Amino acid sequence: MNIRLFNLKKYFIIASGALFISLNAQNKKFTLVIDPGHGNQNGSARHYSDLGEVREDHVVLGVGLKLGKLLEKNKDIKVIFTRTSDVLPSLTDRTNLANRSKADLFVSIHCNSTGSGTTAAYGTETFVQGPDQNKANLEVAKRENSVIYLDKQDEQNFASYDPSSPESLIALKLQQSKYLASSLMIGGLVEENFVKKNNRNSRGVKQANLHVLRQNAMPSILIETGFVNNYDDAQYLISEKGQQEIAESIYDAILKYKKASERNNAPQISQEVPEKKEEKKLDSDYRIHIITSPNKYTENDPIFRGLNYILTIKEGNNYNYYYAVTNLESGKIANLEKVKSAGFNNAKAVAFKTNEKLKRGYYTIEVAVSDSRLRNNDKIFQVLGDVNREKIKGVFHYTYGNVNTLESAVKLQKQIEDKGINNTVIEKK
Questions:
Q1: In sequence order, which ranges of 159-203 are alpha helices (DSSP H)?
Q2: CA end-to-end span of the chain, whole Å?
Q3: Which of 53, 229, 246, 373 shows its CA 20 to 30 Å from the CA of 292?
């Protein structure tokens, strides 16, 4: 049996460290999102033979429902489906559902197809998000990602994304580093079960730039259960026996993954209760610098992996992103550890002197950036009135206000957002 899997032992070791953090608390139900691939046959792989029409959307829905039925027997597992009928949820709806549910794992189930005259390819493979490593993976990514053109919302949200650009690859590495070891582990367990339990041919665990995984703030995998245009695979995929075996192998892998997660997150019990001492406040407020980027992100962007309380300060052409604020040493340490555990290993604590006035320059609020000049009746002018406009390299930048302390800038920003002007940024001039 030809199987090309990642070294599971290696990733069990990695996953026992800081990267493996799929469960947030012991008393929280393990939440799993099952995504039965394509729906309503649009964009799904299908093939015609003497077996009849073999449709991916029907096969993966059958596998997904069978998997859900197995999982729902476990009282400590919460199962959420992206679809349970012949519908076509958008990629945006699927990822938003998973992120809103604070899921611990996202499992997308698909069928493969070579998309050419050959029917020789057969077997299973599981993908995790990341830079594509070869031409074959790129072809899979192209086929799976073509679904964005079936939904207006997806086309708007994803179509401008270029998986081959250096900027996109950097963003992917930042975003997925937190979940890569966990995703590789569950992917390896799934493929291992397909070989040992179902006697299938495994094509391995691979990385590809897949839109359905890209914006998920949790470990995520996409399982290709077989090739619909290979006769033997298709015969297995459309059978009740085949679908049940696939579901059982995925189910067993999820239970093993969940057990490893819980073991890793078990609290350390101390035999002594340390005496609490009153902590002295620091002279400055401390914020944790996450990243500096020329790109403007909103607080709930998946790149921040669930971190809340993001403060953005623009300086020059770059945006600096900071997490939380505290004037306690213990808080500073805890906040820094949290940001690093989210995968930002270069994060550092930065001191901001309370109510310190700028010696040079001032703070203002960036309220809009546009390639074209805003109309005079735009909401920004109607609400704020005196807005400064500056054209830099063909782009219009609109700012409001002039204050000399960060605290005043934060307060001004809050006042603007209370008036309905969102996605603003504090800018240091």
A1: 166-196
A2: 63
A3: 373
The token duo for 121 is 């390819």
Q: In sequence order, which residues have a C-beta less than 8 Å from that of residue 135 and are 6 or more positions away?
A: none
**Helical spans, DSSP H, in 197-307:** 211-214, 231-237, 240-264
How much is the average pLDDT of 122-129?
Answer: 88
pLDDT for the residue numbered 211? 56
From 365, 312, 309, select the one nearest 339 (Cα to Cα): 309
Mean pLDDT of 199-222: 76
Between residues 276 and 243, which one has the greater pLDDT?
Answer: 243
What six digits make up the tokens of 57? 């959307």
Closest to 19 measured CA to CA, from 214, 179, 254, 172:
179
Cβ–Cβ < 8 Å for 251, 67: yes
Query: Is the model more confident about 273 or about 100?
Result: 100
DSSP sequence for 378-426:
-HHHHHH---EEEEETTEEEEEEEEESSHHHHHHHHHHHHHTT--S-EE
